Each structure stands twice: as C-alpha cells, then as structure tokens.
Amino acid sequence: MSSRERILGRVERALADVPQDDTPYEQAVQRDYLREHGNRSAAETVDLLAENLADYRALVHRCTEAELAAVIAGLLAERGSRSVVVPPGLEPSWLAATDVEQIADRAENTPHELDRVDSVVTACAVAAAETGTIVLDGGPDQGRRRITLVPDHHICVVRVPDQVVSSVPQALQRLDPARPLTWISGPSATSDIELDRVEGVHGPRTLEVVLVSDQASGAVNS
Amino acid sequence: MSGTFVGMPAFPAFPVAAHEAVNDQTLRGNLRHATHTIRAKRAKAVAELSDWAALREAGKQIKDHTLRHLDRYLLQLEESVTAAGGIVHWAADADEANLIVTQLVKETGESEVVKVKSMATQEIGLNEALEAAGIRAYETDLAELIVQLGKDRPSHILVPAIHRNRGEIREIFAREMSEWGRPAPDGLTDTPAELAEAARLHLREKFLRAKVGVSGANFMVADTGTLVVVESEGNGRMCLTLPETLISVVGIEKIVPTWQDLEVFLQTLPRSSTAERMNPYTSTWTGTTDGDGPRAFHLVLLDNGRTDTLADEVGRQALRCIRCSACLNVCPVYERAGGHAYGSVYPGPIGAILSPQLRGTASEIDASLPYASSLCGACYEVCPVAIDIPEVLVHLRERVVEGGPVTREGNKVVLQPAKGHAAERAAMRAARWTFTHPGALRTGQRLASRTRRFHPRTLPGPGKAWSGTRDLPTVPAEPFRDWWQRTHGGKDGAK
User: Fold this and answer.
1) What integer pLDDT is reported at residue B495 of this predicted model?
2) Residue, of A74 and B421, whose pLDDT is higher
3) Is the peptide bond before A161 cis (omega within 30 degrees of 0)?
4) Which of A162, B271, B360, B432 is the most buried if burial means most Cβ atoms within 10 Å?
C-alpha cells in the first residue's frame, strides 16, 4: 500500500462519526463578519492607507500623475542610487526624469547581480487601507518577485483611488490566486528579539510608497 | 532536539523539567518581559476589529468543516497542485518525510539548503536527517538562526529564541557565526537593530547562492492549489523565490477549502501572533510560474500522528491550530516554566494537547503534559480558532488515568491506565462508592465534623506533596444535610 492510500484510509476511518449528509461547505461557514471596517469615502480610504503604511515605517509620498516622474527622480537622487531595476511593463514616463542607470528585469539576471543594484521601481496590483498593505502579482509593471526583494530600496507606485480597497477580504477578491503574490506591509521587520519589532532584516529596508492621483490637486508630501 | 519527533524519549516529565526552569532567574526575566510585551499589544490589535468574535467563529467553522471532510479536500488539493505544475508526495510519518526530502535534495546534486522557519520540519527533525545524509540545512529565520547557532532547542512556536535576551544573542552571534559562514561584525553590540543587521549580512551570501529552498506553509488552498507563507523578515521570500527547487513540508491539517477562506485567517493570524494589523510579508504561490521563482515545486503532505488525532472526536479540535502562539504568550504556566519543559517543538497550552495526541501518551513527558495547566482558560479566550484547550486537557487527563481506546498509527488500540495515578484512581473509586451510598456518606460526614479538631493541616503519605502548596478544606461543625434537617425540618420551601 502506498503512503497516499495509507493516509487517506486513516483519514476515512478517523471520520467514521461524520454523517454522509454532513452540512455542506456553503452552510457550514457563517460569514457574518464585516466586509470592511467603518464607512469611508474613497478619499478617506486613501488617507487611511497612507496612515497605516506610515505607521509600519513605510515612507509615503503623494503626487499627481504629472508630478510622478519628478518625484521618482527625486527619491532616487535623495537615496544616492546609481542603478535601478525596471520591470518590463513599467510606464516609461515614470523614469523619464532620472538619469540613474536602468537595469531591465530579465530571467538571466542572477541574484548576485541584483544584489549590486541600489533600487527598484514597480507598480502594484492592489492596496488594502485597513492593514496598510500593498500587493504585487508579478504583472508586467511589477516584474519577477525577486526584484522587489534583493535590492535594499523599493519604490512602489499606487494609483489612487482606483487601486485602493478598504480591507483584506476586498483585496483577495481582486486578486488572481494563480499568480504568485507578495503582500507587503511596511519594510522587512522582525519581532524575534524579545518580541519587540525592529525594522530591517532581509527584504528591502526602505519602502517608499508613492500614491499617485490623476487630479491636479494635492501635491502634498506626508 | 535530536532524532525524530515520534517517540523521542529523552525528556523528563513536565514537573521535573519545569522545576529547573522556574529556578532560572534569567529565563524567568526573559519570558516575563517578552510575554507581557506581546500580551498588551495583541489585545490592542484585536480590539481594532469590531467583528473579532465573528471572524473567530468563522475560522473555527472553516477548519472544523475541512477536518470533517479532510479526505475529500486532500484529494482536491493534490489535483490542483499537480495541475499547477507541482509534485505531491505523501509521508505517513517523520522518517518517511525525511527520506523523501533527502532524496529530493540529492537529486538536485546540492549539498546545502536554505530553510524558512517551519514547525513541521522541526517536528520531524529534518535538519538532523539532512545532516546525516551530508546535507547542510541553514535556518534563515532570525530566531531559528539564534537557536541553530546556539545549539539550542526552540522554546516558542513563533519566536523559538524567546528564552534568550539581547545580551545572550550578541554572545552567540559573536562566538558562533564564523563557524557557519560570514562572522559577526567586530564590535557587535546588543541593540536589536545591530543584531538584525548582523543576521542580514551573515545570511545574504547563503540566500544568493541557494539552489534548494525548504519551507512549510501556513495554509494550503484546496480549490486553487495555492500555498501561503506568512512571515516578517523577508527570509521566507528569499527561500521561496531565489532557489531553483522548492520543497514544502506541510501537515495535512493546513488545508482550507477556498481562496475566500484566507480573508478570515489573514485577518486573525497576524493580530494574534505578532499583534500586527498585517505581517510585513505574505507570499502565495500556485505550483510554478514560468520565469519567476523555482522551476520545480514539491509538496510533501505530512501525517505523523495527525490522523490519530483526527480519530479522537474531542481531541481533533487541536488540528484547527494555526500556530499563532497567542496561547503561549498568555499562559501563566508557560510564562514561568518556559518552552523547553514541554519536551516538544510545540510548547505551551497548544503543545500540552497536541504533543500527547501526535505522539501518544506512552512516554513520561507526554503523560504529564495534560497536567501542565491550571485550567484557567486564558488560552481558550485568546485562541483565534476557539480551540477549547481546557476541555481537551481534561479529556486527555482522563485518558491517561483511565486508559481506553485510542488510535495509534492508524490502528485502534486500548491504552492501559498509566502508572503513577493509582492514588487518583483509588480516590475516585472511593468517591463514587460513597456518593452512591447515602447512608455511608451521612455517617462519614458526621464523623468528620465531630473529629475536626484532630484533622491534620497537611496530608500524610502520597498526599503530602499535594497539600504542600494547598490548604485542606475545613470541615464545618455540622454537615449541611444535618443543618437542613434541623432548620427546615426536611421540607422544601422557606420555613
């Protein structure tokens, strides 16, 4: 007998008490929890995202579409970056204002090569305000998972309010499970020393999130 | 830990091990500091969600439903993982799982692997098995690294090095890192940020050259074949995405039926474990993805006592556990005794009900674990999947004292009553006889009342230890039933 059959047989015998007509999945789980917490306007949801991102030590910037290239160029310059990884489908205009060396995200790049790159700029798939989370799904403007992992500085652009949802349930609903997903809530951190949170272990130690809106208003840095 | 998990016989009974631990002042201080820090934070993070009770109930229902139909969901998972490009292996016990993983690593021709923190691989003693086959396993979680470098045993589910303070961690890094790779920086201090930096530098080269990653998983989604790893440091992402081959060893109880079910656990798990709204990184992957991440993905489904646990209608709720460790952090016994006293990779209240079920109650440590509790119920209160730990503890105590039918390695067997509980059994038998003989009860009570001046303050013989820390109940001057007879004339209602 294979182990597969052995285990499945054990499971079946262990569940001898479960009736054939046991309550089906749809009725067994009562989902009377909330889809989101609180009632917010779209603008308030974006504010909450900014607040929660900042609470977990992400650096949050807000600008309009027209200002974006200058903001990204400024962040790279401020950081002193000499090179930046660029996903294949990133909107070219975003990097129009910087003269930092651009390195394409390619399958041939070795982890050692990526380790020598200073920064990475990506878009995202969705952001959840209540938890201050941005999610990458490996889309053309986000690239392979490793490019947002090995470089120490990640600039992530979120289109607001379109890409922002309130809650975890709403975020899951927008995502495709078949894609490899990375949920990011602040820079890498650990609670392993005396259960106290310290930022900065293996992932990028600096996470900058740029919330870009298409209105010409609020060019406010926070 | 050494050897495989099943039947590891070397651990002394809980009271013996705990006795040593409670006299260790440093350990007491470290545990008190850490558990108290996290308790207040967890309460705050939970209070942010007005629907916590509903989420907790839904989490319980999802897990219960899955367990009740585990055979069906296992098959569904196997099908969806395979369809997504993964290869599924089945391991009935620790030895078999270790053999499968060792074989898979050997097939890649590599002699080292990087590891994400995983309870399942701790449980089966995978590192030791790999070592014996000439393969070096590098733990990459900060706390696991501290444990591995310190040649220590884990003492907490989430923070295995919780028993170490920053000064001790600095010592271990400065002394041991050079043995394993890049040495600790000169002049390393004990500030947590510097210690984290030292770990980053030490592990970097290992991540960048790694060809094989080994992980567990927090959840497996049956309908999509997706695996989920919830972490903080980014070491998980490194191990899950940089290597060419990924091997995940996961307990069969980690399944949830649908993608939507994650909406419950991704809210309750981070808040219960690290008291965060969300942990820094969560990775999900479904089989393999062309050009992104590992080219080969192996899933090893692990039984190792889980189906035996499933066969116990009361005890099976322990399989709902999502390994958040909130019950450890809140437990007064864990806070004082520490994790090592539990003689298992699963310490604390959940360990006290999980280990004796996964391993059986034959060893001294496993027979003593159901007693490692004051039954205060704080663990049940904080559990995000509402495991009634006190209920299972009492159930397991009964099994230890009385024996009876259990399932071991898939076979139904009858346990003999454990040794060392003879006095308990005799007392219970005497009580049963007395309560079913009212005449004897009355005579006994009267006799006790009249002789109460002569009662000792402590029990003699085997009862001595019990009364060493407890007052014996005072016997009233007049038994209740006599008082009732005298004041109410034996009639119902007020006089």
Assistant:
1) 45
2) A74
3) yes
4) B271
Which one of A195, A199, A209 would you mutate to disrupt binding with B, by most B Cβ within 10 Å of its Cβ?
A195
Chain A nearest C-alpha distance from B197 (Å): 6
Query: Is residue B492 exposed (0-12), middle (13-18) or buried (19+ Cβ within 10 Å)?
Result: exposed
Helix or strand holding residue B484 (H, E)? helix B480-488
Average pLDDT, stretch B60-89? 98
Between CA A149 and CA A134 the distance in angstroms is 14
- Inspect the interface and report whether the beta carbons of A195 and B262 lie closer than 8 Å: no
Q: In what order do the strands lie in the sheet with B226-231?
A: A164-165, A126-128, A133-136, A181-184, B281-286, B226-231, B219-221, B255-256
ipTM score for this prediction: 0.95
CB of B169 within 8 Å of a chain A CB? The answer is: yes
> Using CB atoms and an 8 Å cut-off, which of residues 29-68 of chain A contact chain B?
29-34, 37, 52, 56
A27 CB-contact burial (10 Å; exposed 0-12 / middle 13-18 / buried 19+): exposed
Tokens 């009580």 sit on residue: B431
Statement: residue B3 has pLDDT above 60: no
B179 touches chain A (CB under 8 A): no
Residue among B35, B142, B162 minimizing CB distance to A190 = B142
Domains of chain B, earliest start first: 51-302 (3.40.50.10420), 306-415 (1.10.1060.10), 422-488 (no CATH)
**Most distant CA pair in chain A: distance in Å?**
69
CA distance B491 to B473: 29
As a CATH number, domain A40-213 is: 3.40.50.10420
Does residue A97 contact residue A68 with C-beta atoms inside 8 Å? no
Domain ranges of chain A: 40-213
In tens digits, what is the pLDDT along chain A, a chain of 222 residues? 899 999 999 999 999 999 999 999 999 999 999 999 999 999 999 999 999 999 999 999 999 999 999 999 999 999 999 999 999 999 999 999 999 999 999 999 999 999 999 999 999 999 999 999 999 999 999 999 999 999 999 999 999 999 999 999 999 999 999 999 999 999 988 888 887 778 888 989 999 999 999 865 444 444
Rounded Cα gap, residues B173 and B190, in angstroms: 10
| B430–chain A nearest CA distance, Å | 34
B305 to chain A: which residues are within 8 Å by CB?
Answer: none
Interchain contact A133–B (C-beta under 8 A) = yes
Kindly tell me the number of DSSP H helices and DSSP E strands found in chain A: 6, 12
